[in-house]
What does this fold into?
Amino acid sequence: MKYTVTITIRLKEGMLNPEARAIQHALKNLGFQTEDLSTARLFRITLEAPDAEAARKTARQMCDRLLANPVIHEYTIEVE
Amino acid sequence: MRFAVVQFGGSNCDRDTHHVLVDVCGVDTDLVWYKDGFARQYDAVVLPGGFSYGDYLRAGAIAARTPIMAEVIRYARAGGLVLGICNGAQIASEAGLVPGVFTLNAYPKFISRHVNLRVENTTSPFTMLYREGEVIRIPIAHAEGRYVAPPGEIERLNREKRVAFRFCDEQGNVGPESNPNGSIESITGILSENRNVLAMMPHPERASEAVLGSEDGVKIFNSMIAYIEKYGRRSPTRQEKRT
It folds into this structure.
């Protein structure tokens, strides 16, 4: 079966996000007031797997071994 | 004695480091292309600065997972000396050779300038020629150099004296004013558990000749050479170390 997994990787709660701060500042310069802004990185990966659970497991391994750094990141995985 | 400087696609301080090792320190050094692997035994491996894989994903993340880094990890586990400079430090941390991660500067721009560092450890193979508390001047050049590690890990690094360098002012005072990138506790050089790996963001190879404005960095390479001369090819692990 072909599955598409969507992996979202974001900084853990409380981690300094200089990118988000800079973007928030730029939005302010354009006249947009924002209360909070965070950023995340999204990976959409199509892969072969026997079932959805196996696809999720593979995606988790991808995160643990390369896509995320456990010191600073947390991630969520959606399978469709 | 022979050093290896590993070249990844995007390394750009490999030849500078090679030049300092060969022409300033007088040690035989090979440039080793990452796809070639190590064809012989080395006394030390240097992971140089640059932008391996264009800093894609996270600085150092992709290079850290190349086959040659699997060799470097094995080499380090066996006690071999590994020095990671700038992108090399990012690669070393991503490879798990040292704890923590170097990530985007608190003010997210590229910083390239000389900074002052306080030498915190003078017993490692990389720092044994310095005096404790000595203030040295070495340049930094990075956008992703802010050191982050969990609080427990920082506490352990301090307890085990595994912080090699902290950013400081000219007098050696450590504080937010002299911390260019927002690193936790101004840490910018860390040692592995057995002290045979040093990951540092500043560039000692750019401060190893008077003509470049500072020779403070050359002691890192000379410390490694002195250590190897004293203890032989494979640096002893902490347990075996004779002091």
Q: What stands out?
A: Chain A has two helices and three strands.
